[in-house]
Structures are given as structure tokens and as C-alpha cells.
Fold:
Amino acid sequence: MAMGLAAVLKQAGAFVAGPVANIREALALLDPLPDCASLDVQLGKETSFPIADELAARGVPFLFCTGTTVDIPARHRIRPVCSKPFRPRNLLDGLASLLA
Structure:
């Protein structure tokens, strides 16, 4: 699924730094900082909340994509969420709104 979404984003003209499979890989991609980010809440056995914390600390806008019932921590509940399953247009519109 992640590869398909990356292809949709690339086709729309975005530079895609992922997908990644874990927190360590994601944090390694934050130099240089992205303009915005899309985070799948569940990364295997981990959640992406440490990545969200780092993005927030660096002032990078992001949204969550999730198909799980994992609760988003209160500190990130203000972030936009694309609920799975979603159409690619929903993700593109969500990311565009972060840059507006």
C-alpha cells in the first residue's frame, strides 16, 4: 500500500522520501527537512508517534494516515487524519492543505 501511495504522490509531482518501515529509517530522512509529511500511524510493531514528535519540534506540518484503532496521543489530535481506506485524492488534498 505504501508503495502505491508513493507512486501517486510522485505522479502528482511530489518528492517522496519514503516509504520507510520503522522509526529509525524515518528519522534518518529528516535532513534536509521535508516541506510536509504523511505518517502511517502503525509501522509494523511500532507507532509513528516519535516521528510525529520530531516533526512537530522542527515545525514540519504533517498528517496521519490510519486504518487502525490506535489512539492518537492528545498532543497530536490537532493533526489532520486520512482514514484508511481512502482515495489518493484525499491524501493529495490533505497534504496540499498543509502547504497552503
The beta strands are 37-40, 42-43, 46-47, 62-66, 81-83. The longest helix spans residues 88-99.
